[in-house]
Fold this protein.
Amino acid sequence: MKKFLIIFIVLLGFQGYSQSMFGKKPLLNMEDWDKQRIYWGYFLGFNSYDFKFDYDAAYYENNKNLDVEVRTNIGFNVGLVGNLRLMEYLDLRFEPGLYYSQRDLHFPNITDKGKSNREVSSTYIHFPLLLKFSALRTGNVRPYVLAGYSQSLNLSSNYKAKDDNYEGRFRMKQWTANYELGVGVDLYFEYFKFSPSIRGVFGIDDELIRDNRPESPWTGGIESMKTRGIFVNFTFH
């Protein structure tokens, strides 16, 4: 989380640098670019996925060490951007992408160190549909906010596996629904538009597939497990 805040501060600094670089009354680059009905681009970026766990109250009362500890790691993203202009300050964006991530889970209620940790590596195909609300362009800089809905296909979910945590296999549902909120800035250069952004992703549905035994120390008592994530993307048009 701290790493992403540092990256975002750097992006804000870059925005200020860009304004300084272009001057108080800069020559406008790509002046008519945003007037296009449809245009395309691509993005590269980083992600940090997390899980939010909720527990059954009665079960949790008798199992104080139930809280699952999540260690996040930095993953990377790559994808395409399709932009549809709805009106002057509002666009509809479709940003399908491939997201690689890893989360390390520790179950403190399990004393056997060989069984208390699970490495959850995920490869997502991410399908967000977003509304982009842009501010008035100032020189070659234009900030914006994003909000929308997404579906993610987890290619590493193990959802078809019959083995569970007793055989060392952590299982998740194949599809995830999310809502997303973010901010960014469009920077207009002579030959391309560069758009750094940071976005929060919040899972809506429970993603956990329980073990075959209800008393499982890995999944027993967990009411829901939902994805949380932060994306930092660098988009080029």
